[in-house]
Design brief:
- There is one protein chain.
- Helix content is about 30%, strand content about 20%.
- α6 links the parallel β4 and β5.
- The strands form 3 sheets. Strands 5-4-1-9-10-11 form a 6-stranded parallel β-sheet, with helices on both faces. It has a 3-stranded antiparallel β-sheet with strand order 7-6-8, covered by helices on one side. It has a two-stranded antiparallel ribbon with strand order 2-3.
- It folds into 2 domains: about 140 residues, TPP-binding domain (Rossmann fold), CATH 3.40.50.1220; about 80 residues, SIR2/SIRT2 'Small Domain' (2-Layer Sandwich), CATH 3.30.1600.10.
- The protein contains 8 helices and 11 strands.
- The protein is elongated.
- α5 runs parallel beside α8.
- It has about 230 residues and is an alpha/beta fold.
Length: about 230
């Protein structure tokens, strides 16, 4: 089977009702992202940051994968699919996708503030006093602004193997994730799904733009790739 690599962003999850900070000029669920998504924000007010992600974790339990997620999972019957997502939710997995790499971390995991390789699955609230096996405070397993993206090299290796590249729900304006498109082999077909695409069909060879949201666009994509 051909290798289909899918890059997904916030527009994928927004169709399920998950809000992102890019919806409201730097505010994420009413909070300045610099207060809840940076190491300095955590240092200044750890209680606020922990509670913010506790609420995001609770919200995640109340939403479901949308048709877009399910379409990608269904495509596994026809392609060898790897999803590289900027999203921190688990909606791709819950829809049935088996190969998902999270560039920016995962809401349902936490990690040590002393050793970032010490990671735990986490379903409940995370509070001050919750420590790892090394007696260090736990924090959300989220890549905050200003932090390195440890899974980037893995994502590059996956993208380099793409026979077909699909981009859904991301403007391709946020780096380093946006740089992944540069690692495909010349001539690789690219499908870009976005209601307001920031690139045009002259930007890349073999680029097909589908001007629609993730739900409708993925259904159009499915027909193009399978029929």
């Amino acid at each position: 089977m051909k290798n289909l690599v899918v890059l997904t962003g916030a527009g994928m999850s927004s169709e399920s009702g998950i809000k992102t900070f890019r919806d409201a000029d730097g505010l994420w669920e009413g909070h300045d992202v610099m207060e809840v998504a940076t190491p300095k924000g955590f240092e200044r007010n750890p209680e606020l940051v922990l509670e913010f992600y506790n609420q995001r974790r609770k919200q995640l339990k109340e939403v479901e994968p949308n048709i877009g997620h399910k379409n990608l999972a269904e495509l596994e019957k026809h392609y060898n699919i790897h999803i590289v997502t900027q999203n921190v939710d688990d909606l791709h997995e819950r829809a049935g996708s088996r190969n998902v790499l999270h560039l920016h971390g995962e809401l349902r995991k936490v990690r040590s503030t002393l050793d970032e390789t010490v990671i735990y699955n986490w379903e409940d609230d995370l509070v001050l006093g919750n420590t790892c096996e090394k007696n260090s405070q736990l924090r959300p397993h989220i890549v905050w602004f200003g932090e390195a993206v440890p899974m980037l090299e893995n994502a590059i290796q996956i993208t380099e193997q793409a026979d077909v590249l699909v981009i859904i729900g991301t403007s391709m304006q946020v780096y380093p994730a946006a740089s992944l498109i540069n690692f495909i082999n010349p001539g690789t077909p690219i499908y870009f799904i976005d209601p307001k695409p920031a690139i045009n069909e002259e930007s890349y060879r073999n680029l097909t733009i589908i001007k629609d949201n993730a739900v409708n666009g993925s259904s159009i994509l499915f027909k193009k790739l399978v029929d």
